[in-house]
């Protein structure tokens, strides 16, 4: 998913998180990264079976984008029937390592638990700000 550059910055990115989210944004990309982490080389059909609900079109599109971003490597073998394998690049492995704490957080979080009220943070817990933007 290519997002338009933001005005006001030379490369259109505000910070590292912004850059990372451009690469992994969307419902499926993180799951594709994780599937490729579990086994170094996967074929298209294997990835599709590992990600129930993803369409062939979306998987193909995401793999092309991830290849263009340098996190996935595509190797096409000159065989009949054609065989294509996908694996993580060094950059993709580093990205997956960076996602591990997020995965640990998700495993530790009880399912169905809401951490904050649905309407936003508890206003009583927020510091009162003076007109100049500093706390009292």
UniProtKB/TrEMBL annotation:
Cited InterPro entries: ArsR-like_HTH, HTH_HxlR, WH-like_DNA-bd_sf, WH_DNA-bd_sf
Pfam families given in the database record: HxlR
Keyword Transcription regulation among record annotations: yes
Record keywords, A-Z: DNA-binding, Transcription, Transcription regulation
The keyword DNA-binding is annotated on this UniProt entry: yes
Domain of life: Bacteria
Gene3D superfamilies for the chain: Winged helix-like DNA-binding domain superfamily/Winged helix DNA-binding domain
Domain HTH hxlR-type: 15-114
Protein name per UniProt: Helix-turn-helix domain-containing protein
């Amino acid at each position: 998913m290519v997002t338009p550059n933001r005005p006001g910055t030379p490369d259109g990115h505000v910070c590292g998180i912004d850059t990372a989210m451009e690469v992994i944004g969307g419902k499926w990309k993180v799951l594709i990264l994780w599937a490729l982490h579990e086994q170094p080389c996967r074929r298209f059909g294997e990835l599709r079976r590992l990600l129930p609900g993803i369409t062939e079109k979306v998987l193909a599109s995401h793999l092309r984008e991830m290849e263009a971003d340098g996190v996935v490597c595509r190797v096409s073998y000159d065989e009949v029937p054609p065989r294509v394998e996908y694996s993580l690049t060094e950059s993709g492995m580093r990205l997956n390592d960076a996602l591990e704490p997020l995965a640990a957080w998700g495993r530790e979080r009880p399912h169905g638990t809401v951490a904050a009220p649905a309407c936003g943070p508890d206003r009583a817990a927020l510091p009162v700000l003076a007109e100049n933007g500093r706390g009292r």
